[in-house]
Amino acid sequence: MRAMLEAIERTQAVVEFGPDGVVQRANAVFLALTGYEPRDVLGQHHMFFAGADGVRSDTDAAFWQRLREGAAESGVFLWRGRSGRQLWLQVAYTPVPDRKGRISRVVAYATDVTQEVAYTADLRQQLHAVDRSQGVVEFSMNGTILAVNQTYLRALDYRLDDVVGKHHSIFVDPEEAKTENYMAFWRHLRSGHHDSALYRRLGRNGRVVWIQATYTPIPDANGRPIKVVKYASEITAQAIAPERERRLFGADVAETMAAARAAPALL
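Above: the chain's sequence. Below: its structure in token form.
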């Protein structure tokens, strides 16, 4: 047991509080992590680490009341280091009873997860940006629609309950859905390969919508594909513009040739 405690002291940030929330001890790892000296923190209340605004869920009275009653608490909390530096810590608060069973102290074991929290926040912002600008659809590996964002629903003029639980083929011409190419498309995705192209899709009431999309299989921890996520941009106007230009050009050519053929008769 002593060896285990010594190992924890060497590797884990540890700070001990009295049942009133006042710091009684802080180990070297905790001090190095937060940048404090022992004199900075000993005798300070736990609120000292919450910063000037004191906004942190582990500082409220109910939280400490639960600890005094012997209930362990854990979570990711924002702490203030020296000079106001913000630290996100994964903390486990463990009430320790005395011989009479009364809680005599609370030991907090902390791990710095600041980088992980920052990475997660950045990733969340990126995903939010994608969600605002692109259509996103999640499918099971057999093509059943699991989730659809509002951007995609607006592009095809569907409601959420129109599509969730339906097969991807509701977006496809019924004749195309029967083809070998369409079945091969889903076999390709189930094998873990992505597919990216310009696709002709059908919105509500059969309206033709052109999308530039990428279908990406998402693997589980063992590398086995468990779902497909589609990221799509609706580009109907751009897609049909070349065809419109070809039709107009063809009409101009036909008109010119007709005029040329008629010209001798006018002479």
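Residues 2-118 form a domain with the Beta-Lactamase fold (CATH 3.30.450.20).
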